[in-house]
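Quick one: structure for this chain?
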Amino acid sequence: MIAYYVVDAFADEVFQGNPAGVCLLEEDLPDQLMQRIAAENNLSETAFLRREGETYRLRWFTPTFEIDLCGHATLASAHVVCTLAEPGRDRVDFLTRSGTLHTIKRGELYEMALPSRRPARVEVTEAVISALGVEPLEVWGARDLCVLLEDEAAVRAFTPDYGGLLTLTDWLGVAVTARGEDCDFVSRYFCPELRLEDPVTGSSHSSLAPLWGEKLGRTELTARQLSQRGGTLLCRVGEDTVTISGRAALYLRGQLLI
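Got it. Here's what it folds into:
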C-alpha cells in the first residue's frame, strides 16, 4: 500500500487553487507503474516522493507523461512532508530532474526556489496568430509560450483552440498574460496535449515573473491565475531563480491498494 494525499496548492482553502496528488513511497516504483497511477488519479500532476537521508527524491507525472518541473505539486509535496510525514519540519530539499529545489515553510506560506527560465522574444507570425486565435501584443518563449494580451479582460475572455495550440510544437504549454487590475500581472495556462486549462501553474511563473519583473522594473510581484478555481502566487525574481510562495489545503488522505 502507498500513502496518498490530494492537496490543493496555491489555495487558502479546499476547492481553490490546483489539486495535486502526492504519493509517499517507501521504495522506488517502476516508471510504468508511476505513469499508470498518475493516469488513474487523473489529476494534472501526481508527485512521487521518497526520502533519501535528509532530502526527498521527487518526480512529477501528468496522466500521460513525466514532466521536468511542476510548481504546484512541489508545494503540495512540501505541505505533505512538513505537516504529515514530519510534522514541525520547516525546510525540505527535493532532488528533481530540474536540480535540487529548496522549499521553506514560513507560517502558512510555502516558499519554493524554482530555476529561472527567462523567455526570449518570439516573432508574431501569421501562423502564430492563427494558432492562438487572437493577435497578441507580444509573444515570448521558454519552456512555455508566453502570450501578452491587451488587458486582464482579454485574458479572461481568451478561448483556446486546442487544435491550433497543438501546432505550436516548440513549447509545452501556452500562458496568456496581461497587467493585472488588482495585482501585478494575471495569467491563464493551457496544456494543448492534455486539452485542458491548468488551474494554477507554478512552473510557468519561472518565465512569467522574470518577464513582468523586467517590464515593471520590480523583483517582487503578486500574480493571480484566472482559472475557475483561481490562485495567488507571490513571486521574487533572482538572478538564477524565481522564488514562488503560496498556501496549501489538504483535501484527501488515504492509501493506494497496490
